[in-house]
Design a protein that fits this description.
This protein is of the alpha/beta class. The chain folds into five domains: 204 residues, Alpha-Beta Barrel (TIM Barrel); 54 residues, Oligo-1,6-glucosidase, Domain 2 (Oligo-1,6-glucosidase, domain 2, Alpha-Beta Complex), CATH 3.90.400.10; 123 residues, Alpha-Beta Barrel (TIM Barrel), CATH 3.20.20; 32 residues, no CATH class; 132 residues, Golgi alpha-mannosidase II (Immunoglobulin-like). The C terminus is likely disordered. The structure holds beta-D-glucopyranose (BGC).
Length: 589
């Protein structure tokens, strides 16, 4: 494994659930031993970081975010030994591992809560937040799981008081005003760091503290505590990271980076829905606006960008009008809405449109940040809205066209969730084996595309400058880092588009398409003219003209063209020209 402390800046993260990936024990539930068997698949895909969803002992009322033991492994998934072996095996393949730190709450089945409710005198009572009068305390805090909960207070008949919870009532919030809770969580952090994991996604991190007269989100006390977590990390461990899950406006997320002394990464929640809006509106404005409103972050920090994840596509961070628009455009199925969001996977959101899938990955992979791919989305898996809650986007991974999608040898009835069987997204037609065999499949395209991205540090580390051509259906920008200058041009429209780019600052430079290595005419006196097919995009390296006294290197033509299809739609698939200067044009297989 490389020793770069800024490794997360170049990470391509893959989010997965152990239960959903591969079942090695034929009990219908995925496990660590199964996941280890599939690490070669992930290495071949090209990702270099896995984010694991919760795998701790839990009654699974909130898919494992309701933890009943912070230091264990749910027996269905394996043992601590299996977990350690998984971390070692991932590292052996240069894949880092992020796990969940669910600090905000426990399960109501956690022994702490059981003690707390059994006796008001228990030391554990103060681990949680209690009141006699729920109408008087913390009234300005919103309810998050709107479809399931009416209040953030729930009555405990055993101890005859109300306890505080921001999510399901079976997830009582921990009380961070209690120094023992603060210390215990720091020790839990160390416990997992000692297993060798590379970092944590900090679940639901804005809600740790409560104060009357506030929304009980993003409080200064929360930031102070996170800084103490970071200090523990930096003092005792090397190259480990914190990733904040703060579903907030970008100006409210900004403080989670502190002065580079809090979290290393934070999800860019406001950008995500705007990518979908820009696509449907065929207009670059939603993306440009949100990126321009995004405050700068300290140099060693990074955004985590995503299109979909294990939750509903959240619309909490858009205006009511924008939310209505998103529902109209993307939540056609009457069961698709959940809380303030839409419970669909990526492919169904895009009506399985291959060009749109590729275009959205072009945007995801080329805006500033580290991209996160949700398992199964690399092959366009579908969902099942009838499964309730968010379970429809958490179905078994589709490996083959065999029984249970090759996920498990158990009887179908024993699976933790049914596999997808509909005629469009069913495992008989969408599975990793079939797509691996088909050079033009989305999975193979993703592999090549991930490799293309990883060639350039500018994507993870570079500056961003929007070009804003007159044609606002085009989203174009320049990414620059040290010697690398990249030009990205995305067509948000379903029709062919002409465009002119002002590249005056790069007169004389040559555009070299990243995947095929095809050289385009140099930038001249006039605006640079391009045409793009429907939902097409180009990624170019901008190549500086050689200094006059230097002799130009002869341009070498590779012997074989990239035979297996070209991720850059609209670029030529013929013989690729390699450029020695830029290092592009290699076969990306
Ligand atoms: C997770 C959800 C979970 C909630 C409560 C969220 O941030 O992504 O899946 O239900 O936290 O733990």
């Amino acid at each position: 494994m490389d020793n770069d402390p800024l490794w997360y800046k170049d990470a391509v993260i893959y989010e997965l659930h152990v239960k959903a990936f591969f079942d090695s024990s034929s009990d219908g539930i995925g496990d660590f031993a199964g996941l280890i068997q599939k690490l070669d698949y992930l290495q071949d895909l090209g990702i270099n970081c896995i984010w694991l969803l919760p795998f701790y002992p839990s009654p699974l009322k909130d898919d494992g975010y309701d933890i009943s033991d912070f230091r264990g492994i749910l027996p269905d998934y394996g043992t601590m030994k299996d977990f350690r072996r998984f971390v070692r095996e991932a590292h052996r393949r240069n894949i880092r591992v992020l796990i969940e730190l669910v600090m905000n709450h426990t399960s109501d089945q956690h022994p702490w809560f059981q003690d707390a409710r059994a006796s008001k005198k228990s030391r554990k009572r103060k681990f949680y937040v209690w009141t006699d009068d729920p109408k008087k305390k913390y009234q300005d805090a919103r309810v998050i799981f709107l479809d399931a909960e009416k209040s953030n207070w729930a009555y405990d008949p055993e101890s005859k008081q109300y306890y505080w919870h921001r999510f399901y009532s079976l997830q009582p919030d921990l009380n961070y005003d209690n120094p023992i809770v603060c210390r215990t969580m720091l020790n839990i952090l160390s416990f997992w760091l000692n297993t060798g994991v590379d970092g944590f996604r900090l679940d639901a991190v804005p809600y740790l503290f409560e104060r009357d007269g506030t929304r009980c989100e993003n409080l200064p006390e929360t930031h102070a505590y996170l800084k103490s977590l970071r200090q523990r990390l930096d003092k005792r461990y090397k190259n480990r990271i914190l990733l904040a899950e703060a579903n907030q406006r970008s100006e409210d997320v900004r403080p989670y980076f502190g002065d580079g002394d809090e979290c290393h990464l934070a999800f860019h929640f406001p950008l995500m829905p705007r990518i979908f809006m820009a696509l449907r509106q065929e207009n670059n404005k939603p993306i440009i606006q949100i990126m321009e409103q995004t405050p700068g972050i300290p140099p060693d920090c990074q955004w985590a960008l995503f299109l979909r994840n294990h939750d509903e596509l959240t619309l909490e961070m858009v205006s009511p009008e924008e939310r209505e628009y998103m529902y109209q455009e993307y939540a056609e199925h009457p069961k698709a809405k959940l809380n303030l969001g839409i419970r669909h996977r990526l492919a169904p959101l895009l009506n399985n449109g291959r060009r749109q899938l590729e275009l959205l990955h072009s945007i995801l992979f080329s805006l500033p940040g580290s991209p996160v791919i949700y398992y199964g989305d690399e092959m366009g898996m579908g969902d099942n809205v009838y499964l309730g809650d968010r379970n429809g986007v958490r179905t078994p991974m589709q490996w083959t066209g065999d029984r249970n999608a090759g996920f498990s040898a158990a009887d179908a009835a024993q699976l933790y969730a049914p596999v997808i069987v509909d005629p469009v997204y069913g495992y008989q037609s969408v599975n990793a084996e079939a797509q691996s065999r088909t050079p033009t499949s989305f999975l193979n395209w993703m592999k090549r595309f991930i490799r293309a991205r990883k060639k350039f540090k500018a994507f993870g580390r570079g500056t961003l400058k929007f070009l804003e051509p007159k044609n606002n259906k085009i989203l174009a920008y320049i990414r620059q880092y040290e010697g690398e200058t990249l030009l990205i041009v995305n067509n948000l429209s379903r029709f062919v588009q002409p465009l002119e780019l002002d590249l005056a600052g790069h007169r004389g430079w040559t555009l070299v398409e990243v995947v095929g290595g095809v050289r385009f005419p140099a930038v001249g006196e006039l605006p640079y003219f391009l045409t793009l097919g429907p939902h097409a995009f180009y990624w170019f390296v901008l190549e500086k003209p050689a200094a006059p006294e230097q002799k130009k290197m002869p341009v070498k033509t590779p012997e074989k063209s990239e035979a297996k299809g070209n991720p850059g739609r609209g670029s030529k698939t013929g013989k690729a020209q390699a450029s020695r200067n830029s290092g592009v044009g290699e076969n990306t297989e």
